[in-house]
Every structure is written in C-alpha cells, then in structure tokens.
Amino acid sequence: MLNTAVKSEAPGTEQELTDGFHLVIDALKLNGINTIYGVPGIPITDLGRMAQAAGIRVLSFRHEQNAGYAASIAGFLTKKPGVCLTVSAPGFLNGLTALAHATTNCFPMILISGSSEREIVDLQQGDYEEMDQLAIAKPLCKAAFRVLHAQDIGIGLARAIRAAVSGRPGGVYLDLPAKLFGQVMNADAGQKSLVKVIDAAPEQIPSPSAVKRALEVLKGAKRPLVILGKGAAYAQADEAIKTFIEKAGVPFLPMSMAKGLLPDLHPQCAGAARSTVLKDADVVMLIGARLNWLLSHGKGKTWGDAPKKFIQVDIEPKEMDSNVEIVAPVVGDIGSCVTALLDGMGANWPAAPSDWLATVAKKRDDNVAKMAPKLMSNASPMDYHGALGALRAIIAERPETIFVNEGANTLDLARGVVDMHKPRKRLDVGTWGVMGIGMGYSIAAAIETGHPVLAVEGDSAFGFSGMEVETICRYKLPICVVIFNNDGIYRGTDVNSAGDDPATTVFVKGSRYDKMMEAFGGVGVNATSPDELKRAVNAALDSGKPTLINAVIDPAAGSESGRIGNLNPQSVLQKKK
Q1: pLDDT value at position 10?
Q2: Per CATH, the architecture of 376-563 is what?
C-alpha cells in the first residue's frame, strides 16, 4: 500500500500526496525486496529510517564495502538482487568495490547511492560530495541508471532489477540525487507509476542441436570430466544437476563455491584428485564454470599434454572460446540446459569407462589417506591442517552450517580439507580472490538463510572487515568467527633487515582478536589446540551467540601467497643476491 506523505493544503484542492522517499520504499516492497544493507548518512539517512518503519529490514554496517559484500552474497543465495544503500561520493566509492566484485562473480546486486545535484555537478561548481557517480560506475557494473524525477522511480528500479538478474547476473548502479527524495506528486499517480517486474529472469532454452552435439562429444569420451562452477550453484537446479552427474557416471570436480552441489564425499567426486583429472581428461564439460585463472585458462602444465575437447554450458554466449576452443557450446540458463541434456540422454546412456573411474578413485583415495594423519594433529601451537581437521569434523556433523572462508593459506587449504555436504553452504572470495568479504558475507548469510554461520578467516583477511563484529553483536546474529592467527600475512616470521620497523608482512605478536568480540558483548575465546578449537566452535554453534575464536597458529606455518605464489612476480636482482 502506498505511503501517504503529505496532503495539499490549498483550498479546494485537497489531495493525497506522496514523495520520492515513499516511492522508493514502495517500489522496493512491490518487488519483494525486504532487506537493505548499508551505512546511513546524507542524503539517505531518512530513507533508511522510513524503510525500516515500513517493514523493510535495514541493516546498518560500519563500512559501505562490507555492506556491499553482504548485498552481493545475498543476491547469490536468493537469486534476487541484494540491495546496498550508501551516501554520495566517498560512500558510493566504498560500495563500488563490492559492486564490481558482484559483477565479476555474476551475483545480482543493486547499489543505490544518493548523489549531488546534477546542475551543480555538471558545471563542477563544488557541491557537497560532488562527483559524477553514474559515469564512474558504468565501466564497473552490468548497467547504471539515474532517476531525476519522482514519477520515474518505479521504472528506474524495475530496470535495475531486471538488469541485475536477467541473462548473466551482475551488479547494477542506481543513482538517486538528493532532490529526488523530496519531490512531491499526487499519490494516485505515484502508485500508478510503480512497476512490478514480471519474469525478470526468463528461462533461456538451449537449442536442440547444441544439446545433441554436447552429448555426442561426451558419449565419445574415454576419460570424461565435469567441472561444476558457482554458476551451477546459483542456478538452484540441484536435483537436475545431481541426476545428470549420476546418470552420466562421470567424475566431477567442484569449484570452491560449487562444493556441496553433490556431497564432496560422493563416489564420483574428484576433488581430491584434481591434478590427475585436469591433466588426463580427454573431454571436459564445464557447467556454470569459466576457464579463467582459477582453471589456468584451460591450458598449460595444469592441463597436461593430452588433447582435450571442451563442452561448455553457460548463459553467456560471449563466454565461449574465451581461452580455448569450445567444440560443443550449450547456451542457456543452467537449469534448462541440464534438463535438456538429461532428456537427450535417453534411457540407455552408456556407463563411463571403468578404467578411468578406477584411476580417479585410486588417486583420490591415495591422496585422502596421505592427508588423514595431518588432519588428526593436536599440536599446540596449531598448524593449518590440525585446525582445519577439527573444523572439517564440525561441518560434517552440522551440514546446514554456512561456511564462509577467506585468507591466503586459510582459504587455499580449507578448500581441499573441509568437505561440504549441501549446496550453497560454502561462500568464499570468488573469481577475484579478493580479501575482505568475510564479515559482510557472514552477516548476509545469517540474515538470508536463518542458518548458523562459521566464518574462518586469516588474520590478514579479517583486518579488512573486522569492525563489523560490532554489527554482528548489535543484531545478535548466530555467527562464529574463527581467526587463524599466525601473527602476519602468509607467516609471522618475516624480518626487516634494513631497520627497526616490523617487516611488511608481520602483525603485532600474540594479538588477541577474541577481545574485540568481548568489547561489544559477544563471546571471545582463545584456542591454542585443535581440541580447544573444536570445543569452542561447537559451543558457539550450540549457543547461537556472536563468538570470535582466536585460533593460535604457529607463526612459521603457511607459505607465500598460499597456493598461488606463482602469481607473484619474482625479482631477478633479488635472486642474484
């Protein structure tokens, strides 16, 4: 129902009026958007207050970037655009990092920012927080719109929603100048100007010839492999994907945020045999995954010398042939494509080659057996494997828990160690490998799913968003944060040989991050062994109270840049010294 803002007082012309504030709120509610993440301030403070009064849940953060990350992962989890609301100029720029991150990762998100007045910005006359925000946003998101008139608010938001979720999802910027909020119009006309978006992300059906071609290539494979990406997880076509994988009988490799689409302990899962399957497969089917740097662009040493044919299932036609030739592109939404593939397989699909399945199974089992003793360690101070072994057991016992993960070693090792058992339970840094997503993701995951959250953070990664522990406490969210604290970035043992300043990668020795949570009324725990860590995490998840565990890791544990140290440029001069 439209909110009435004011009534005209002119004699004989009494009518109900509304304004830009109320039209924005009504447009959001009409389209089922009931949560906003943001930071209040000029000129959007009252918009947040009014939205909250109208029944929208408005979560105020300590920094816009973290609110933006929350909105981005809300979009991934719900398939509706997550909304981040910021002030102008600096606040907008803080949110822009998250908007670009959402676009790169194909998460539907809308960044709504207040802005300075156009007539002053365009003449560069020095308005409060003057900035041409629309022009800055355009190169970094999927679409960008500005609304100048109250009667266009409904259309503007509708365009933003449709752009965010249709086709390949992504980030959208919506610019709302300060004067827009105070514009007044007839309430009936305002209500009629609102737009309810119908079928915002329509199915995109693959062509029958593409489906037939892909199945013929897959059927002819001697060493087939399916790679599942986070696009497959986003699609929420879980049962169809599971049925397809099992009917094909093919080994599958989940990318990190696709873990749990089928359980990591599924007999066809090749996660523990990654190197072998990438190197030796002769036909690779990508479902919602891209051949970017995370898959070594589909070429090089990672992929070995064996000739390969690639099948790719993706909603974006331009993704095909981006790095290597795709012999069987299947363009459409993941759910429709997988369903069509299943229908095309018929009742007598041949079994996958038994020698290939046996090779993959043996390599997987051998690697799991080699890793097992490391995960049983109860050493103090902990190493990464001992600590992750304790957390692995907890996730196995509590599969509904959302597992948020970031860091260098903390992220890279957890990907391989911590098994996921259900879809969309693992949330991490995604395509860019960006640090700082931890607290924003955790807050949104708790809000959007109602499930407990276990956030496992490197001490460096936590620093980007750590102040949001106050936000967690303020909203009393069931989030347990574990900081893998080894006193520095990668390791805490680096030394500055040229002066008294600490080395660039070293933090304060013996920091007690748990005291931060205690400062805001949450529970803080210092854990020095895997057994202590496991007890503390279980207690936190049982209680549902905001908890931060300072997990003391050996400062010497870890390696440079985790498992992607090869991306660090090497100094020729330094090598010669």
Answers
A1: 58
A2: 3-Layer(aba) Sandwich (3.40)
Q: At 311, is the secondary structure helix, strand, or coil?
A: strand
Binning pLDDT at 50, 70 and 90, where does residue 1 land?
very low
Q: For tokens 């690639």, what's the residue?
A: 310
Matching residue, tokens 């995370």:
294
Strands 283-287 and 328-331, bridge-based pairing: unpaired
> Dihedral through CA 247, CA 248, CA 250, CA 255, nearest 10?
-80
Q: What is the CATH number of domain 208-361?
A: 3.40.50.1220
Is the separation of the CB atoms in 26 and 187 below 8 Å? no
Q: What is the CATH number of domain 6-193?
A: 3.40.50.970
Instruction: State yes or no: cis peptide before 43, omega within 30 of 0.
Output: yes
Query: In the structure encoding, which two tokens stand for residue 500, read together?
Result: 């008294």
C-beta atoms surrounding 124 within 10 Å? 9
Number of Cβ within a 10 Å radius of residue 7: 10
Tell me the mean pLDDT in the region 209-235.
98
Domains 6-193 and 208-361 equal at CATH topology level? yes
83 with 102: CB under 8 angstroms? no
**CA triplet 260, 261, 265: central angle to 5 degrees?**
50
As a dihedral over the C-alpha atoms of residue 266, residue 271, residue 276, residue 281, rounded to 10 degrees, the angle is 70
- Please name the amino acid found at residue 59: L
CB 224 within 8 A of CB 251: yes
Average confidence score pLDDT of the chain: 95
Q: Collapsing DSSP states into helix, strand and coil, what is residue 85?
A: strand
- For β-strands 184-186 and 171-177, DSSP reports them as unpaired
Query: Are 72 and 82 within 8 A, CB to CB?
Result: yes
Q: What is the DSSP string of 429-478?
A: -TTTT-S--HHHHHHHHHHHH---EEEEEEHHHHTTTGGGHHHHHHTT--
φ and ψ of 488, to 5 deg: 175, -175
Instruction: Report d(CA 175, CA 117) in Å as an integer.
Output: 11
**Residue 102 and residue 405: Cα distance in Å, rounded?**
17
| CA 235 – CA 425 distance, rounded (Å) | 14
Residue 402 and residue 453 in contact, taking contact as beta carbons nearer than 8 Å: yes
Which of 183, 118, 186, 192 is closest to 154 using CA atoms? 192
In this predicted structure, the answer to whether residue 149 has a pLDDT above a threshold of 60 is yes
Rounded mean pLDDT, 467-486: 98
pLDDT at 118 over 90: no
Virtual torsion, Cα 516, 517, 523, 524, nearest 10 deg: -30
Terminal alpha carbon distance of the chain: 73
pLDDT band at 127 (very low <50, low <70, confident <90, very high): confident
Contacts of 576 (CB under 8 A, 6+ apart): none
pLDDT at 312 over 60: yes
Q: Parse the chain into domains and list their residue ranges.
A: 6-193, 208-361, 376-563
The amino acid at 107: F
SS3 string, 193-227, reads HCCCCCCCCCCCCCCHHHHHHHHHHHHCCCCEEEE
Q: Tell me the C-alpha distance between 340 and 207, whole Å.
A: 9
Point out the least confidently predicted range of 13-17, 321-325, 454-458: 13-17
Give Dmax over CA atoms of the chain in angstroms: 89
